[in-house]
Each structure stands twice: as structure tokens, then as C-alpha cells.
Amino acid sequence: MATIIETAPQQADTPGGESVTDLVHRLAIDARAAQRVLAAMPADARERALLLAADALRAAAPDVLAANVRDMAAGEAGGLTAALLDRLRLDQGRIDAIAAAVGDVAVLPDPTGSVIERSARPNELVLERVRIPIGVIGIIYESRPNVTADAAALCVRAGNAVLLRGGSEAVHSNRAIHSALVSGLVAGGVPAAAVQLLPTQDRAAVGAMLGAAGLIDMIVPRGGKSLVARVQADARVPVLAHLDGNNHTFVDRAAVPAMASAIVHNAKLRRTGICGAMETLLIDACYPDAHGLVEPLLAAGCELRGDPRARAIDPRILPATEADWDTEYLDAIVSVKVVDGLDAALAHIAAHGSGHTDAIVTADEAAAERFLRDVDSAIVMVNASSQFADGGEFGLGAEIGIATGRLHARGPVAVEGLTTYKWLVRGTGQIRP
């Protein structure tokens, strides 16, 4: 993903010269107190507050758009890439979609308090494993202003408080969205401190969040590889993260050509700057219409980089380097490799994939089932565009991110992924012999 662009360190925007570490600790303490109130609210009260927040965001659209114009102008002057500018850009349609996502999260089933399992022991102790909020969650993210709303909504729905630290490239947009959301949440009875946006862009704020063990319960980084790597290396707080989305689409020899062409085109070019975009196209050497896969991409202005067999399909395909197989372009660029069947495709994905999203296009059910079984990624697809790798498309309302690790949660992380559990044990006077 993209590399974070920061301003030079500056003093925290608080009176009296409060240090950044003290600022973060104070906000986290306030968040902890607010979270206890939030977690005790009935589910329907949290739902109502989020619906009010969605309405407040819609009403604040002119202010949000004006703030976004400032961010876009600064981003263009600062040389942000086209992919980053696309992530940063807001219009009325995107604001409507952000507000709709908040509303969708509001009406999701409340996971907190649900019983995961219940059992009775031979000694008549009754045990229940029950979902509860994680607590205080820190979100460190870059150029997508929608993360401000998605993170706030998901955390509130699951009974968590959240500390938001957005990138400097979206500072004005984030502040406008946050202000609108909080006004609606407070009108619904949620403490303002349950959703806080750090009032400083000082780089030290990230370090302070990472070191806030005991105050912040989990960190979720959403941004470039360098940011995520730093968070994972330096955090003294549990981290839920993924690195890049080096996603593959494998067109099997048994793929239906019209379907394969449509999926490949959409997976790469619908939106090139999202983590679900296809970055490598693998084509079975026996697939009968390889040119029908690459021609629409080339015609749309996409740059293709291929191995020698891929370049033989069309002379406009440029030579690929070894680095291309490991690159998340987030741009209208795709690497193309011709492989000798499913085994070779699986080997390539195992060697170069990032564990995010990989897809096969095929009419061969056995090949599809083997791909689903053998590809070790958080999301594995058959006959569908990798652009569906999104919490909203999975019916989760929104997502806090897509986790590619193995602990706690995998794939799109939404309300349920922002809970943990505790054991409830009910006895009738039992003592242990």
C-alpha cells in the first residue's frame, strides 16, 4: 500500500505545551472511562446514536467537501500519487456512501453479550463463553477519510472506544467527518470521549500510541508497508494488521472466456488503488483465449509487465522483473505470467502472495475446490473479482481492515472481529477437591 506522507513534527495542539505522550495517555484514560459507559448502553441505544451520526454526516456534507478541497489541493501540490489522490478524494456520492455505511453498521446484530457456547460440567458448574468489547482501540491510518467514519461506527457498535490518528494528507477531511459524527453520537447519549481524533499530526503520537500498554487494548494500522512494519516492530500493544495486498487472479484452462475477461478487467481496473485490486494475472498455458484477457487491459491504458511467454501474447507487454511478482502497484499496472497448470499457479501464489486475496476463474469444480483448499490467504475466491474483498460486500456493513495474520481475526474485520470473550461460571456451592 502507499507510503505515509507526514508533516514535520509539531507541538501537540493543546494548551500549556502538553507533551504528545501525555496527550495520548490522557485521551486514552478518557476513552477508557467512556468505553465503560458505552459498553453498558443497550444495543438499541447504540444503534440509535449511530443512525443520528449518519444523519449528522449527511447534514455536514458541505463542510466535509470544503475540508476535502483543502486536502486535495495540498496533496496535489505535495506530489501525492494518483492512487493516493483517489483514496483522498471525496464527492457527494462518496459522502453519501460513507454515511450509508455508518447506517448499515448501526443496524447490524449486536455481538456483545451473545453466548458463543454453553456447557454443564459433571459437577454441575454451568459455563458460558460470552462476547464482550475489546476495550480501547487505536486506529493509525493514512489517506482514506472514510476510515474515520468506518472505524468510529464499527467500534461504537461493538461497545469499544476508539482513538483515531489519521495521516496529515487528510487532516482537514478527517476533522470535519469526526466533528459531524461526534455531534450525532453525543445526541444519542454516547460520551464524546468514546470517539476521539488525535488533535496533532506530530509523528511522536504514533510512538505514544504504540507504547500505551494498559491504556490501549489493540492497535489497527491501515496504511503503507512501512507504517505497518513499524507498528508491528515497535508496538507494546497487540496489533491487528495486514501488509500489502499482492493479489492474484488465476485463469484456469477450463475458464469460460467471457467470464474470465470480465473478471480480470474488473479486478484490475475498477479501482486500482484499493487493497483488493488484482496485481498479478496468472494464465494457464492451455487457456485458449489469452489475448482476450490482455487486450481489454491494454486498450484501457493499463501497463502490463510479463514473463517471456506472456510477452508472446502481445508485443505491447513490457518485460517483467523479479521484483514485479512481489509488487503491490495500486495503479494501472499488472504483472502477467503464463503458468503450466494449477500446480504452477499454486506454487507462484505461495512464493509471492501476501495472504490477502487470491482468485481462480474456472468451470472445473475439482480445480476450484483444490484452489480453495490449498491457497493460504485470508480470502480465496472462485469466479469472482478480487474487488469484492471488502467488509461491506461481505455483508459486514464496513470493515476496520483486512487482517492477513492467523490470530484473532482474518479477512475483513468488522463488528464481531472487534470483540473478545470472557467465561461466565455459575455454581451452586461447588468446591474443588
Structure description:
The protein is α/β, with parallel strands linked by helices. It has 14 helices and 16 strands. The protein has a seven-stranded parallel β-sheet, with helices on both faces. Helix 3 packs antiparallel against helix 7, helix 6 runs parallel beside helix 7 (171-187) and helix 10 (257-269) packs parallel to helix 11.
Write out the strand line-up for the largest beta sheet, numbering strands in chain order: 10-9-11-8-7-12-13
Residue-averaged pLDDT: 92
Are there runs of 5+ residues with pLDDT below 50, and where?
A: 1-15
Task: Give the CA-based shape.
Answer: globular
- The termini sit apart by 57 Å
Strand segment tally: 16
- Order of helix and strand elements from N to C terminus: HHHHHEEEHEHEHEHEHEHEHEEHEHEEEE
What class would the helix/strand composition place it in? alpha/beta
In DSSP terms (H or I, runs of 4 or more residues), the helix count works out at 14
The main β sheet shows up as: 7 strands, parallel
Describe how the helices and strands are arranged:
Elements lengths: L19 H21 L2 H17 L1 H17 L4 H7 L3 H15 L8 E6 L5 E8 L2 E6 L4 H12 L3 E5 L5 H17 L7 E3 L6 H7 L7 E5 L2 H10 L12 E5 L5 H13 L8 E7 L6 H9 L3 E4 L1 H4 L6 E2 L13 E7 L1 H12 L4 E5 L3 H10 L4 E4 L18 E3 L7 E3 L5 E8 L7
Parallel strand pairs: 3-4, 3-6, 4-5, 7-8, 7-12, 8-11, 9-10, 9-11, 12-13
Antiparallel strand pairs: 1-2, 2-16, 14-15
Helix pairs in contact: 1-8, 2-5, 2-7, 3-7, 5-6, 6-7, 10-11
